[in-house]
Fold:
Amino acid sequence: MDASPQKITLSNTPRILAARDTKIVARDVNVYYGEKHAIKHLSIDIPDRAVSAFIGPSGCGKSTFLRSINRMNDTIDGCRVTGDILVDGKNIYDRDLDVVQLRARVGMVFQKPNPFPKSIFENVAYGPRIHGIAKSKADLEEIVVGSLKKASLFEEVKDRLDHSGTSLSGGQQQRLCIARAIAVNPEIILMDEPCSALDPIASARIEELIDEIRQNYCIIIVTHSMQQAARVSQLTAFFHLGDLVEFGDTDEMFTTPKDKRTQDYITGRFG
Amino acid sequence: MTAWTLLIIAALTTIGFFVGQARAQALRNAGTVSLHSLPAYHGLLMASMALAAAGLTTLVAALVAGSDSLVMPAAVALLGTGAIAASYRLITKDFRARNRFEYFIMLVLIACSAVAVLTTIGIVFSVLFETMAFFKEVSPIEFLFGTHWSPTSTPPSFGLIPLLVGTLLITFIAILVAGPLGLLSAIYMAEYSSKKMRGVVKPVLEILAGVPTVVLGFFAALTVAPLIRNTGESFGLVVASESALAAGLVMGMMIVPLISSLSDDIINAVPQALRDGSYAMGATKSETIKRVVLPAALPGIVSAFMLAISRAIGETMIVVMAAGLAANLSFNPLSAVTTITVQIATLLVGDQEFDSAKTLSAFALGFVLFCFTLVLNYIALRIVQRYREQYD
Amino acid sequence: MTDKSVKGNAALIAKRYASERRFQAYGAAALAISVLFLVYLIVDIGIKAWPSYFEHRAVLEVNLDASKIPAADVQKGDFEGIVKRAFRGSFPGVTTRRDLKSLTSLLSVGAADDLRQQTVANPSSIGTTVKTGVLLADDADLYLKGMLTDTVKTPGTTNVQMAQTGEEIILTGDLSQLVAGQIVRANGGALRIASVEAGLAKAETIMPTTTLNTLAPGTWDILSFSHLEADRRIDDRQVVWLESLRDKGAIEKHFAWRFFNNGDSREPELAGLRGAIAGSLLTLIMTLSLSVPLGIAAAVYLEEFSAKNKFTEIIEVNINNLAAVPSIIFGLLGLAVFINFFGLPRSAPLVGGLVLGLLVLPTIIIATRAALKAVPPSIKEAALGVGASHQQAVFHHVLPLAVPGILTGTILGVARALGETAPLLMIGMVAFIVDAPKGFTEAATVLPVQIFLWSDLPEVAFQSRTAAAIIVLLVILFCLNAVAIFMRKRFERRW
Structure:
């Protein structure tokens, strides 16, 4: 099942890229979990200041690739990554790169909301604190309030910043996690199925939020829901069995998919 | 001098922290570009450098010059300050102080983990060396196969067999008590008892497990042994006042919680699907337990028993207080026997001379005991491990 | 499946159900035996221990003679002499050397200790007469607690005539109340009945009577015993003295604070746990300061940072095996390495603490690892996600969340260390120590070793002291366990 390296052809490169700066460039990326070949010869260019959605059936490798972009895969025993992933032209798998600084630039929001069991304020303040971003106490407060506002959570929690982050509802928790990610001024925000544990109303608020902040960040969202991908993203990548099958403008992808597998997936033939 | 040295080390470490932090803070305030690491990490790194330098110097100085000389605090002060000065020059905006500090912490963590291994090595060597010394005076053959043990008589004789028999006799009685009780308790708790009852009985067993052995020894010697003697005599039996039976019974009660808690875990780990399969065929609960659950849990239960045996063999206080001192080669549970641990304890309490065969023989006994329990534990742990893998 | 249908075989089904019930009953019985054993153990030791928490004192009028007490140094006053004189003074009939010795042996060696302290605290009382309680010796104390013999006091209800022939006293008249071995107290003296025959009883004088008047009902009484003089550790004369004190109301029963405030002693009534408790405390501090940092560091490394390699595997197998090594072996390690090789002092809490520290290290490592494992990985991921380093994620988030579990494990480790005896015997913590140790390198003993030492002593009173010490130890351990169980319940977090 050793597929030949999949080269990005011109036709494969989305039209939209021409209008924007490329933020992330991946070339011939392979990820292995022990013996398992989870991502196969993947190459992709992801633009800045836009939302890119990764879709595909379970186990297709979309989350795996997402976690390679901020090297969260490092924490998994037996995981191996080959190939190059460049952020702003700098290879993030370089030896001299400090993974901690990388993760400050590449924020992440997880599938299940995972606030720290500390106060709402401390949740957001933690990142700025360890990175020494805030110069003073007032500065820190400003960052926390600003981040909560950007995550459109501030109005709901402004009277109880000292309450535990875990006391919030699921949707609020997830917005808190987004505020936490924003607080360290990332350039890229990775979202790993951020709405899968939420009800439709809370999901809608997250989607709104993503739409509001997309002007300032390079956002990548992994999602199971094609409707969600269609609603929030400008670009969509379709993964299947560790291959990147197709990457293009979201509108085009959902109306005129080029690959048979993409078509089968979006029409509900499998997955 | 030691106090001074410690004081100097503490002072250097504190100074290191503040110097490093201040230096980094100054850079941060002056510069336009941000530092790689927080000032606190520069401080921590410098503090740990100072600590490491001073600590190593202390060790070296203590070995070379002895802890009383003035050399030690002087050298420590000098090299500690040197470490601070050297690391002062390292602080730049790109210096990865956090990574270096974390590397230092990692070394400390690894060193701490190694202590467990060092302990084992320490045990093996301390016991082995004295045992070797013992075997220079008494031949291993005589020790292992001799049937007479009296280290204080002249000439002394060091035959392991009576001790081994005594140990195994008491262990056998203990397992005879604890095996059925512990296993049945575990089965009842895992399969029959209500949640509420479990909530009561489990802590009771935990308390029983937590009763110090010296207390059980007192109870065995003052309550159980007379009880057994009186009962035995009313049947016309001759019962020694320090009978193996009394020590064995109480030791058995001590082991019940061990067997029951281990077996309880193991029985609970048997997949529900196996039980369901049996129930679906119309088997009663006890039939399911006897024919399905226990056979499936057998490896785990065997290892629980092995751990229990190892515990019984190594138990000291109960037998010191309730079993005898005279090494009788006897299989009669009503007679007084002695055990390996009793002999180690009696030989080593009081003054020891490390050149007499009497003292050294205690280490030889310790060696035998260590080997016995090590083999039992190792096999038992391996069985449990394999068993876990089977159902995970 | 028609004839052989299970339905048909009612007898078999009944048999199967009977077997089911039997099996369940075995299980319940097994549990019940364990519970009953524990209850029996605690009740039995509790009953043995109870008397030791109380002591008897004789109340005396004591003249604090200024000439016996130097005003400059009250501590040096001859309080022993003062107390002894006062005690003898309340028995003017006792004159022979032998009797006086027997009488004063009822007092504890430390009978004057309380009076000395009171006087030092209140020097103005010197020269006055004060009423004070003086501690009785162990045998007198045991007698008053009814532990040497049951004594029954019966008033004499008949007329009995006394006559003296030589050494013997002959009693005649209505002797229906009398039995050999009893003591008759009459006419200011006491007689022991040697034999009772029809109409005539022979008796020996224990304390001389002042007259030989006929005994009228109500003027005399009888002491009868479950254990006669030959079978008990206190003689008849001493019994009569104690009973006369008791009749005068000059015997007081107090809670024995001494049992907690005193160090060890050869005299049971003076022996206390202070030294042992102080020793246990020092040893425990040493144990904890070794095992907690090492244990947590090792657990954090193994659970959070270690790569899966040979080294890690060796450490893990090693820790599991170490947890099951008999404690006496750790004693051998302490003896050979700490004392013999490194030359650390014998009998000291320093070495005891080191040995126990290594002993509980595996317990703490295993508990800490379990607590770390229980923290959900999402917390760590969240921290990594905002750019915390691996160590920051662990030390800022995972470890603090594991603290309740670590504490629970540590408490259980402490409980284990507190009850451990065997390894401490090896390193010589069996010395007889009167004063509480003041430092880590002084000779000391610990609570369980004290129990072991006392259990070996021949005095009956020490048996009860041993049981009393055991109850103290058990109470401490139960409290520790209760705290551990409470914490487990309180901080049990469902993620």
Summary: The mean pLDDT of chain B is 85.
